[in-house]
Amino acid sequence: MRTSARHKRLKLKSEINVVPYIDVMLVLLIIFMVTAPMLNANVDVNLPQAQAKSMQDKKNPVIVSVAADGSLYLTMEGSKKEPIDAEALKAKVGAFVKANPEVSVLVAGDREGKYDGVYQVLAELQQAGVAKVGLMSQPQGTSPSDARK
């Protein structure tokens, strides 16, 4: 009798206890169920608005305009807007800025135009040696016809 009782005590149990794994799985399931709706919710953010004043320059700025179709126009020292290509723009503006390093260079992009046109002008002005370039915008509450007057 003694050997059979000893034999039963030494017998190994070959089953896996899965209860702790089920508990962990249920806790993770609850965490994901609670956090998933929060990840998809959009949050409305009211950004601050500023009433920026226009820059006052002593000299007339150089204005490079990019039309909706991608064509370039140059306005220098209050003269009329003249059509220009990219290579002539680099040469003309580069020479003018070297002669007058204090002058402002502004890029005016059409609202209906592609951003790529403005980006290309910025890259060309950088290659021409222009250190600072500003972007022009329309003041809030005015139409483009008001700005031309």
From TrEMBL:
Q: Name one GO biological process term.
A: cell division
One Gene Ontology cellular component term attached to this UniProt record is: plasma membrane
List residues traversing the bilayer: 21-39
* Major place of residence: membrane
Q: Name one GO molecular function term.
A: transmembrane transporter activity
Report the subcellular localization.
Cell inner membrane; Cell membrane
Q: Which InterPro entries does the record cross-reference, listed alphabetically? A: ExbD, Tol-Pal_TolR
Instruction: Give the membrane topology.
Output: Single-pass membrane protein
Alphabetical UniProt keywords? Cell cycle, Cell division, Cell inner membrane, Cell membrane, Membrane, Transmembrane, Transmembrane helix
NCBIfam families with a match to the protein in the record: tolR
UniProt function note: Part of the Tol-Pal system, which plays a role in outer membrane invagination during cell division and is important for maintaining outer membrane integrity.
- Stored PANTHER family: EXBD MEMBRANE COMPONENT OF PMF-DRIVEN MACROMOLECULE IMPORT SYSTEM (PTHR30558), TOL-PAL SYSTEM PROTEIN TOLR (PTHR30558:SF7)
Protein family: Belongs to the ExbD/TolR family.
Subunit and partners: The Tol-Pal system is composed of five core proteins: the inner membrane proteins TolA, TolQ and TolR, the periplasmic protein TolB and the outer membrane protein Pal. They form a network linking the inner and outer membranes and the peptidoglycan layer.
Q: What is this protein called?
A: Tol-Pal system protein TolR
Provide the gene name from the record. tolR
